[in-house]
Amino acid sequence: MNLKLEDKNTLHLKVCNVLRKAILQGDFEPGQRLIQSELADSLGVSRMPIRESLRKLESEGLVKLEPHRGAIVKAMNVEDIEEIYHLRACLEKLAVEQSVPHLTAGDISELKRLMEEMEGTEDPEVFVQANISYHHLLIKRCNWNRLLSFIETLWNGFPQQTPTLLPGQMDLSNQEHQQILDAVNEKDESKAAVLVSEHIKRTGEALVNSLG
């Protein structure tokens, strides 16, 4: 296996990006035990960033940390990804349509600030955090709590780090985010909702194609 570190972020985030990509591409089999010493030797790092990375990957649902066994790769297939992104596209469309009419001037100002943060960074991890905040804020004023709970479950079911997996994802997402923000500024909740849905579908399809 050829695991390559990228140039950005802190060491444990570099390691995490490499391991995440290897898991999603099937370099590790579901049920396989990830041995810290072997990963550390393969990547030329100490065990500490490996441990930190495995904890993060557990929070993303890609591995399970078991007593006396360590990190076990969880099953994740293309059908899972397709289901998660399709459901997100449908449910977030509903939530955005409910939320946009009630966004405050402060909310819209914060959306603009997050847009500027995403456009101004080349660091995927900075982009990812701003992107998560952007999507959270778009649906913040939705009053359907069950709907928001379903969306939160989907967000926790798959990592949001597509910029570390898809070349050009950050630039394309910035363009789509700007179109969504324009619709929000126009108070056109239907247009904003459709744009969000298309944005999520496009990302999901790109991710599936990249792992095919």
Q: Could you explain how this protein is built, in words?
A:
- This protein folds into 2 domains: 11-73, Orthogonal Bundle (Arc Repressor Mutant, subunit A), CATH 1.10.10; 78-211, GntR ligand-binding domain-like (Four Helix Bundle (Hemerythrin (Met), subunit A)), CATH 1.20.120.530.
- The protein has a 3-stranded antiparallel β-sheet.
- A hairpin with a 3-residue loop joins strand 2 (63-66) and strand 3 (70-73).
- 32% of the residues are buried.
- The radius of gyration is 18 Å and the shape is elongated.
- It has 212 residues and is mainly α.
- The protein contains 9 helices and 3 strands, in the order H-E-H-H-E-E-H-H-H-H-H-H.
- Helix 2 (36-43) packs across helix 3 and helix 4 packs antiparallel against helix 7 (145-156).
Architecture blueprint of SSEs:
Blueprint: H1 11-24, E1 33-34, H2 36-43, H3 47-59, E2 63-66, E3 70-73, H4 78-99, H5 105-119, H6 124-138, H7 145-156, H8 169-185, H9 189-211
Antiparallel strand pairs: 1-3, 2-3
Q: Mean pLDDT, as a whole number?
A: 89
Structural domains: how many: 2
Q: Name the helix and strand elements from N-terminus to C-terminus, one letter apiece.
A: HEHHEEHHHHHH
Indicate the radius of gyration in whole angstroms: 18 Å
CATH architecture of the largest domain: Up-down Bundle
> Helix count, per DSSP?
9
**Amount of helix:** 55-70%
Report the CATH superfamily of the largest domain. GntR ligand-binding domain-like
In order across it, which strands form the biggest sheet? 1-3-2
CATH topology of the largest domain: the name is Four Helix Bundle (Hemerythrin (Met), subunit A)
**Major β-sheet profile:** 3 strands, antiparallel
**Helix/strand class:** mainly alpha
Shape: elongated
Number of strands: 3
Low-pLDDT segments = none
Highest-level CATH class of the largest domain: Mainly Alpha
Distance between the termini: 18 Å
What portion of the residues fall into strands of 2 or more residues?
under 5%
